[in-house]
Amino acid sequence: MKYLFLAASSFLAITAQMIAGKHFFLFNFMDLSLILIAYWAFYRSRAQALFVGSLTGILQDAVLGLPLGYNGFGKTLAAFVIAEAGRRFDVEGTWIRFALMAVSSCLSSLSMFALFLLLQRSSSDVLLGASLLQALITAGVGILVFAALDTYNRIRTKRVG
Amino acid sequence: MSIEMASKGEGRSLYVVIGLLLLHLTLLSIQVKDPSGTLLFKKWVLLATSPMLNGASNVSRAISDFWTGYLWLHGVRAENARLKEDVRQLALLNSSLAQEEEENSRLRRLLAFDASLPYQTLGAHVVGRTPDFLSGTIYLDRGSLAGVRADQPVVSDGGIVGRTVLVTRNSCQVQLITNADASVGVMVERTRVPGVARGTENVLLDLNYISNTEEVNVGDALVTSGLDGIFPKGLPVGKVVVSQKGKTGFRTIRVEPSADIIRIEEVLILLGPPKPVTDSVAPGVVK
Question: Which of A23, B40, B144, B227 has the fewest CB atoms within 10 Å distance of its CB?
Fold first, then answer.
């Protein structure tokens, strides 16, 4: 059941990304799946964040019509970086979360760029530049989402207490 | 999820991420082709297996080389040593057979000579020789037990060799005709002119008491005259190699013995009693 929920959340993230990107251009510069991965790494199991990364990556490849594995590789790598950082550092702070998401997003994009270059002998520098913008936007949106979630959790905790 | 489970999950995260990354790469490799149209998966599998295949091949080759280059050669070395030993053995055998053949040939000649002699004979081997062969003494492996006595003639297939001088139970000493102390009554076979042949400590004999008036030519054969009381009449002695008129009224004559005195190995001892001396003995004959 847990893994079904994990798969469903991944699927929803990709679908939401597609729908939002179709209507709002800026959503194309946001990686909702990376925010989902960060959520699992910060708030749930870090090991399971790896599976979320893999699954969302493969779904993203399938949706974008890319050979399966490009995004899966990048997102798994990003999930590992976030999970490892969460194990070693205090990731409660806003800026560290921002930095972690930005760095992991960049790493994911870079790994894809490298794979493109190695496997298909072609890549786009524009894609690399857009990836930097995507990393900043994703990290910013992620901070807002997590701040809202933290506020919600605090209010809920007070009510229960 | 409990904290304990979570920490356990985190501990495995490194292995999990490696597995997942490999999964993605494998997924990519079965979809993406290289510029030559080959699936990357096939290429990578080949790339991953080729070091192992090469390594296995190298190890196999190294073992094979070690086997052929050392162990097998080690066997070859041992075989080579054994074959060399065999060659040595065969060379010795060959030499031995050649010697036996030579000895057989000599003995056949000696036997034939023996058959032509009207005397009782005894075969003997030369077992010793004085260091200086020109000193004129040899030792035989027959003695008094075999019937040998002193002053018995010793001959070979070529002619006379000498006479026995000292006899023990199982051996005897022979004074060769080339000994400076030896003298033999002889005569020129062609002209029947008698004389005395003396040893000279040389390979040649001196023929004495032949008058300048007698005709003796180089190449004339000499036989025993039987007048010395030791050697029976008619045995071959040698051949004239030098014949000149002398200043004292006697010719200077040199004789080469018929018997191979230097290389002699088997001889016959004439056991029959020497003929009784009825005529005057030539001067200087040693009994």
Answer: A23
The pTM of the full predicted model, rounded to 2 decimals, is 0.45
A residues 58-117 closer than 8 Å to B (CB): 58, 67-70, 72-73, 76-77, 79-80, 83-84, 87, 115
**CB neighbour list of residue B243: distance below 8 Å, 6 or more residues apart:** B216, B217, B218, B220, B251, B252, B253, B254
CATH number, domain of A51, equals 1.10.1760.20
| Domain count of the fold of chain A | 1
DSSP E strands, B53-152: 121-129, 137-140
> If chain A, 161 residues long, is cut into consecutive pieces of 10 residues, what is the mean pLDDT of each piece?
82 83 79 91 85 89 83 92 85 88 92 82 67 90 91 84 63
State the ipTM, two decimals.
0.78
Q: How far is CA B123 from CA B108, B113, B237, in A?
A: 12, 12, 19
* A57/B contact by beta carbon, under 8 A: yes
Q: Tell me which residue range forms the domain holding A83.
A: 2-160
